[in-house]
Amino acid sequence: MAVPRHHMAKGKQKRRRSHLALKPKKLSACPQCKRNILPHMMCKFCGYYKGREIVNVLAKELKKKEKRQHSAAH
């Protein structure tokens, strides 16, 4: 089992861990709807990536709505 040989001062320990702090996410604007999204990711608001529609968001929302109504009816 490893045993520390010397006492480490709190300041030294905090300086060593200073790079472990969380960094803010770097967001970019979606060229289609102008909302902030993560780079290299499909926009979850409009469904576009690199100028092409990947997911039809409106159809997806309608499907969810129908599913909720169907489950509420039973």
UniProtKB/TrEMBL annotation:
Pfam families (UniProt xref): Ribosomal_L32p
Sample GO molecular function, one term: structural constituent of ribosome
Keywords recorded for this protein, A-Z: Ribonucleoprotein, Ribosomal protein
Ranges where the record places region Disordered: 1-23
GO biological process, one term: translation
Source superkingdom: Bacteria
GO cellular component: large ribosomal subunit
UniProt record similarity statement: Belongs to the bacterial ribosomal protein bL32 family.
Protein name: Large ribosomal subunit protein bL32
Gene designation per UniProt: rpmF
